[in-house]
Amino acid sequence: MRYVQFVLLWLAGAMLHACSLQAQEAVASDGGILNNPLDFSSPPTLPVVAAPSKSEIQESIRNGVRFLLADQNPNGSWGSATRTKGLNIYAPVPGAHHAFRAATTSLCIAAILEVAPEDKDARKAIGRAEEWLLEHLPYLRRATGQAIYNVWGHAYSIQALVRLHDYHEDDTQRQARLIELIRLQFEMLTRYESVDGGWGYYDFRYQANQPTSSSISFVNGAVLVALAEAKAIGVEPPERIVKRAVAALKRQRKADFSYLYGEYLKYRPMRGINRPGGSLGRTQCCNCALRAWGDEKITDNVVKNWLYRLYVRNGWLDIGRKRPIPHESWMQVAGYFYYFGHYYAALSLDQLPASERAPYRPLLAKLMLDRQEKDGSWWDYPLYDYHQPYGTSFALMTLQRCLPAN
Prior knowledge:
Blueprint: H1 2-32, H2 54-71, H3 95-115, H4 120-136, H5 150-167, H6 172-191, H7 217-232, H8 239-251, H9 276-292, H10 300-312, H11 315-318, H12 338-350, H13 361-370, H14 387-400
Helix pairs in contact: 2-14, 3-4, 3-5, 3-14, 5-6, 5-7, 7-8, 7-9, 9-10, 9-12, 10-12, 12-14
């Protein structure tokens, strides 16, 4: 009996110790990274990281491209509703999968055009993917009153169409058609904009004609980045939806530049998912978006410090990677934030002065190279059959921005 009591007491003590360590780690994630987490007046002191060579990065990119070319569907798209598992993301058929496939295909087009535009096989793949996108994109709508995954398709298709516009620089007729499709995405984003401004991907409130969904920070960020890219080629997005999305995103920003998951959590700002560790993948996207639209609070040092955080506290994201249940990890991180977060970190890196990017490239490059699968792909969350092509696309575009200047 005494032995049993001793064991129980020992287990209780061990559990308390573990909880204490986890609490200390949570505190460190908020305040232990910088001397003052609210002071972004100076750049961080970076860890010493062995920089991957240019040839290593290029070889990794080639392997990733080979995977995408082999993984393309016969009709030119990427991804499908197959490879289900015991627990799958809510995806009412067929509309949810139309959205997933449009977004995934758009990301693959964007990635291949960025990293291998001159490759003969890649150009063939782009030709087939472009025709699929031009045929199917005009019909993309929300799946049900509740599931509004189509916003991802509208956002990422804009980025693909912008790159295709540059790709067809000598074909004004094709460029005109691409611009027409970009403007159609503006219309769709206006139609599916939340009543609060910005966008969500679920509407569990009233499923009204105009979604009553809560504004979601990282959705707003992703759409705003796409809209900024369209503006850069002279296709001006509607001012009203931009202003409302920016305002919604700013309402979700905290003083340390972490962001609420969504506006519906505004009364629970210290919930794990809303703390810096939980925001690690979202912050990169949201900062990038606001800076693209002229927010002067997102300074170079804010970008640099959050790039630093992404590397030294990468465990908060990495421990959620490949987990089959969304938000089951610490800080309620979901696996599908991993390559998403690093892609927008790379875009944030591009917003720094060219002369100041070099020290941060090895941080992102090492993370990507260490996580590439044997088949050349990257993936972070088992999402039907979309996860490998979208993860690979995000990683390729991240690595492209990590290549040394010389």
